[in-house]
Prior knowledge:
Blueprint: H1 2-41, E1 46-50, E2 53-57, H2 59-101
Helix pairs in contact: 1-2
Amino acid sequence: MTNDQVEQLRxxxxxxxxxxxxxxxxxxQVVEIEHALEELKETNEAHVIVxxxxxxxxxxxxxxxxxxxxxxYTLRITTLQKKExxxxxxxxxxxxxxxxxx
Length: 102
């Protein structure tokens, strides 16, 4: 039983680590988007890179696209935070069970 619990704990901790890393990546994306939105407020024209070409883009539509991406990443962060909380609780329960068996 203990080996199964140790293996289960390892799997949970790996999942927790992956969730934390993914959440941090999305948080970084949100910060970059917020910075880009602030920059757009201070300029009259914007350009985006598509493949290897830079094209001019309407600021309003670009701002709207960035807001949508920000909303999507924020939702993903919320979902990952819930998953992180669940996995943390699961890991604590397994650790507690392992300690009680000793």
